[in-house]
Amino acid sequence: MNKVKLKKDDVVVVIAGKDRGKQGRVLRVYPATARVLVERVNQVKKHLRPNPAKNIAGGVSEREATIHISNVMLLDPEKNAPTRVGRQRTEDGRAERVAKKSGAVLG
After folding, report:
1. Are residues 67 and 44 in the same domain?
2. What would the pLDDT profile of 11-43 be if each residue is shown by its tens digit?
3. pTM for this structure?
4. pLDDT of amino acid 1
């Protein structure tokens, strides 16, 4: 299993699939299945049964579904373009993520 290079709150752009070109913030990362949940991307309809005990009205609602990590790329903060993610060591030995396109340090 490869190490996941994306983190929660990263801004990504979809590079493949029905939502190609859309940008969104990573809400959740699932490393075991190599999938991410991205805000306002891969919207699916969920049919809900009414449940008065939990105050659920029922009907059809839209929510995000997960998308495979290979279909998204991190957005470079400097160039505002999709980029790969690398790692480098600082002088004190800590590892940090860097954008391959511009070399910018990622948070």
Report:
1. yes
2. 999 999 999 999 999 999 999 999 999 999 999
3. 0.88
4. 65
Name which of 107, 32, 36 is nearest 70 in CA terms. 36
Residue 61 sits in a domain whose CATH number is 2.30.30.30
End-to-end CA distance of the chain: 24
Give CA–CA dist 20/18, Å, rounded: 6
Tokens of 99: 């954008």
DSSP bridge pairs for 24:
12
CB 54 within 8 A of CB 66: no
Q: Examine residue 5 and state whether it is found in any structural domain, yes or no.
A: no
Assigned domain for 90 exists: yes
